Amino acid sequence: MTDQSPPNYYYPNKMGRIILMAMEEVLGRNGVNAALNIADLPQFINHYPPNNLDMGLRFDQLSHMQTALERLYGLEGGRGLALRSGRVCFKYGLREFGPLLGCTDLAFRLLPLSAKLRVGSEIFARTFNEFSDQRVRVEETPETFLWHIERCPVCWQRHADHPVCHLAVGILQEALYWVSGGKFFSVEETNCVAKGDPACTIKIDKQPLE
To answer: Does 122 score more than 80 pLDDT?
Structure first.
C-alpha cells in the first residue's frame, strides 16, 4: 500500500526555540503552556527545543501552535497575539542569525533605505531557504516587494477563508522597522495557501507610512 501521508518539513530547533520564547514574552509562561496543550504539543511545555540547527520542529507543529492561539483567544485576539509574537521573533532571530548573514554589519546599516530594503529582503529570504525547509521567493515591483512563501509552515495543512500567516507578517513588520531605523510600513498578506492560493504572498510597500 502506498503511503499517501504528506511529507514532513522542518524548522531547525533554533527557530522553534525563538518562536516559543517570543510567544512566552507575549503570552506569559502560562499562556504558552495553554497553547501547547491545545495544540497537543505537551512535549514542549517547559522544554523548548535546544539552541541548535538540527531540524527538529515540524511544520505541522508550528501550524498547530498558531491555530491554538485562535482557539484560545478568538480570531482577532489570536491574530493580534501572533503578530506581536512575530515582532518579538525578529528581535531574537536577529541576535541568533544576524551575525551569520552580515545584516548587522556597519556596511549594511549605512546603505540608503531603498538598498537596505532590497538587500535585507534577499538576506531574510535566504535565512529561511538555507536554514529551514521553508521556501521563500522575493519579487520586486516599482511600488512593492512581494514576499512569496511557496512552502509555508505557519499555515501548513490549514484551511481557512482568510489569510492566517499573522506570525510571518509580524516578523516582516519588525524587520522593516529595524532596517529602516524606526519607520512603519504597510505589510499585508494578500494570498494564503490555507485559503487555496498557490503560495502565501505578503505585500510590502516600499514607502513608509507617514
So the answer is: yes
Cα–Cα nearest to 145, from 165, 167, 175: 175
pLDDT-based confidence at residue 115 (cuts at 50, 70, 90): confident
Residue 138 φ then ψ, to 5°? -100, 130
pTM above 0.85, yes or no: yes
Is residue 103 within 8 Å of 125, Cβ to Cβ?
A: no
Those residues whose C-beta lies under 8 Å from the C-beta of residue 100, and which sit 6 or more positions away, are none
Residue 119 has pLDDT above 70, yes or no: yes
* DSSP H or E segment with residue 57: strand 55-58
Tell me how far apart the alpha carbons of residues 107 and 122 are, in angstroms, rounded to a whole number: 16
- What CATH number should be reported for the domain whose range is 10-205? 3.90.1520.10
Say whether pLDDT at 131 is over 50: yes
Helix (H, G, I), strand (E, B) or coil at 163: coil
137-100-139 Cα angle (round to 5): 15
